[in-house]
Structures are given as structure tokens and as C-alpha cells.
Amino acid sequence: MKKDLGLVQAIYPMPVLMVAAYDENGKVNVMNAAWGMICAMDKVALFIDEEHKTTQNILKSKAFTVSIADSNHIDVADFFGIASGNKMNDKFERTGYTAVKSQHVNAPIIDEFPVVMECNLADVISNDYMYCIVGHIVNVAADEKVLSDNGKIAPEKLNALIFDQFQHGYYVTGEKVGKAWDAGKKLMNR
Fold first, then answer.
1. Contact 165, 8 (CB under 8 A)
2. Cβ(54)–Cβ(31) under 8 Å?
3. Angle at alpha carbon of residue 66, lines to 130 and 39, rounded to 5°
4. Dihedral of the alpha carbons of 29, 83, 95, 67, in degrees to the nearest 10
């Protein structure tokens, strides 16, 4: 029997995404965003607050990157979520991490994170129910260490962090338990 829990953000897992953009002076800012997802073959949607420093930078620069945080960088990924760029001028510098300018968009790539989507600002959706930054994905780059023999990203090598909205924990992905578009095929012929 199920027990009523009241209002809970009951989606699990949630990604741990590092969103980076330049300010008007070319300074790097990065934030941790769990409320993001792919919304089309070449689009990513970030449901982030309009007041974030990174959001304001995206609106000005019209570009950003979205990296997948991994377990090797959990401390900095969490720091990017608890420190505010609006209150901490040296937020990125404190980490000692390295940023390089994307060759595809006007945004920084954080070298330490293994997978990055390079995006141009496609749209901003703002209404009574949400504030959403939509990015047009121009390129995806990945460290060779997280690629499989077929040249695609291997989740078991990525050790991507996932966020638990229930207990506020971080977990990692990795174990493959089935094949998409195959596991349910036997039910098609019933």
C-alpha cells in the first residue's frame, strides 16, 4: 500500500549538469543544475531561475555549455551548486579548474568534466509555471576515456552523477540492465 507523501519532486534520477557561460567581460561562471533535459534531437532545456548569474550571462552572451558531472569531480560539482556567482566574484577561480573557449559557440568548456554540449541560446520560455532556457546543441565533445569501441559515450565509463531529489544525495550511473527499444518487444505480439 502506498503512503501519501504530500508535495515531493518525485522524479528520479535527475542529471547533475554543469552550465557555464561568459559574462560581458569574458569571465567564466558555472552553476549546477539538476532540472534539465534533452527536449529535441538538437535541443536541451534548462529549468533554471532567471536570477542566477549564469542565466543572466546566457541571456547576454546568447551561448552556453552543459557538461555532465562525474563522480571524480563531485566536490566541485556540488560547490557550483551551493556557491552563488551573484555573491562570490571568484567562484570559478576557487576551484582551480580550467576553462577553454569553445570552438563552436561563445562559451567556456570546463576541461575537467568528461562530456560537454556546446549550445547557442535558442529560446527563453517564461510564464506563470516555468522559466526555461532552451539551447540549440551545436556540438558534443567527450574525453576519449569515456568512449566505447564504437566511438560513442559509454555510460559505464562515464560514472555520471545523478541527483536524488528525495534524500538530496548524489549517486552514479553505470550498470546496464537492458536494451532500449528491445526489452519490451515480446509484449508487442500479445
1. yes
2. yes
3. 50
4. -50
Cβ count within 10 A of residue 16: 28
Cβ atoms of 60 and 43 within 8 Å: the answer is no
Partners of 31 in beta bridges: 19
pLDDT tens-digit profile of 3-57? 998 998 888 899 999 999 999 999 999 999 999 999 999 999 999 999 999 999 9
- Total Cβ atoms within 10 A of residue 45: 19
Residue 16 amino acid letter: V
> How crowded is residue 17: how many other Cβ atoms within 10 Å of its Cβ?
27
Q: Report which residue type is found at 190.
A: R
Chain-centroid distance of CA 127 in Å reads 22
Is residue 190 over pLDDT 80?
no
Q: Where does the pLDDT of residue 176 fall: very low under 50, low under 70, confident under 90, or very high at 90 and above?
A: confident
Amino acid at 154: A
| Residues across the chain | 190
Residue with the three cell numbers 561568459: 22
